[in-house]
Design a protein that fits this description.
single chain, six-stranded mixed beta sheet, 14 helices, 10 strands, globular
Length: 356
């Protein structure tokens, strides 16, 4: 079943807003700037629950022989069995897994590095998950979660990155993220617009970007399956695994530094995402914490609730469209429609006070 059909069965489902921001269109010298605002998604302040909920439903559906799982059938199945969901996170993914676990009555263990925000730690604990802080970078946290899950017969590892031998659940997470793109298509259509001319997407491990690239490369800017439209990825300058991999022509792991874009602080691109991003993106850039923080403030002034990871897309658009010759190189018309995918609200990842 398409992910959006499953999501529509969940309590509180509604498409998130697509905000039209004319002043940003004037600044960027394009026809329209539209921001997909994921500040409130199924009761959480970030988009991650789309992937987590769908992947959990698919994984437990296979475990318990459910052909079209719903929350009710999942609760019934879990109530008679030991099920524990495991996940590593920089914040939003782990909270989403814990949230779904609570909805279906499963246990959850969520692993995270020590430098995620205190707000994220408290939010994960508030969902009822067992929190485990792991010293090291994000890749170390993923490895610990995977090892502990492998030793637990009741485990389902719900991870939004893939590696050899672990691909089904990451792919279902990607499939779940596609709901956001389907909604955006419908909202653009309601505005009398076709597919966007430029889409800017943030990248952590790359699974969300994989969903976005897969969707728009299949659809095309003219809605006829062509390859049109420009797809731009953005990463923190202190966690630029995708940019490094694109430059090397192969996946590489990079060390990561502290950044307010905590949900994007990942040093290794998902194995599933890499070939899709390599072949489907038109470009990838990095932005600084200062650029992301400024974008958070500016979007707030325009009535858009975006955290640093989501606001990074505005910072990237400013960077690229401000470069001489770039818009001409990609054929971006003066009436172009630019879609910025803002993946979290400020509540998900508050900007530190020294950055406000």
């Amino acid at each position: 079943m398409p992910a959006i059909d499953f999501h529509r069965t969940l309590p509180g489902y509604a498409p998130t807003p697509l905000r039209d921001v004319p002043s940003l269109a004037t600044e960027l010298r394009v026809g329209r700037v539209l921001v997909k605002e994921e500040a409130s998604r199924l009761g959480l302040p970030a988009f991650k629950v789309l992937g987590a909920s769908y992947a959990i439903a698919r994984a437990l559906g296979e475990r318990f022989g459910l052909t079209a799982p719903t929350l009710d059938t999942l609760r019934d199945a879990v109530s008679g069995s030991a099920v524990r969901l495991y996940a590593a996170t920089d914040g939003n993914h782990g909270r989403a897994v814990a949230h779904v676990a609570a909805l279906i009555g499963a246990d959850a263990t969520v692993y995270y590095p020590p430098d995620i925000t205190e707000a994220a730690k408290k939010a994960i604990a508030a969902e009822g998950a067992e929190p485990v802080e792991v010293d090291g970078e994000y890749d170390d946290v993923v490895a610990r979660a995977a090892a502990d899950a492998a030793a637990d017969p009741s485990a389902v590892l719900v991870q939004d990155t893939s590696w050899t031998g672990y691909t089904d659940i990451p792919q279902w997470i990607v499939d779940g993220y596609a709901t956001l793109c389907v909604e955006a298509d419908q909202q653009l259509g309601a505005m009398g617009l076709g597919a966007p001319d430029l889409v800017v997407v943030p990248v952590g491990v790359g699974s969300f970007a994989q969903a976005v690239v897969s969707h728009y490369r299949a659809l095309g800017a003219d809605g006829e399956g062509a390859d049109g439209g420009t797809l731009l990825a953005v990463e923190p300058d202190r966690a630029a695994g995708l940019v490094a991999s694109l430059r090397a022509g192969r996946p590489v792991t990079v060390p990561t530094g502290e950044t307010i874009m905590t949900g994007l602080r990942c040093g290794t691109v998902s194995a599933l995402a890499w070939p899709v991003l390599r072949d489907g993106l038109d470009g990838a850039v990095t932005v600084s914490d200062d650029q992301a923080a400024a974008a958070v403030d500016d979007l707030a002034r325009h009535g858009v609730d975006a955290g640093p990871c989501g606001a990074a897309t505005l910072a990237a658009a400013r960077l690229v469209l401000g470069q001489p010759g770039w818009r001409e190189a990609i054929g971006l018309r003066p009436d172009a429609v630019v879609l910025l995918l803002s993946t979290e609200g400020r509540a998900a990842n508050p900007v530190p006070q020294d950055r406000v």
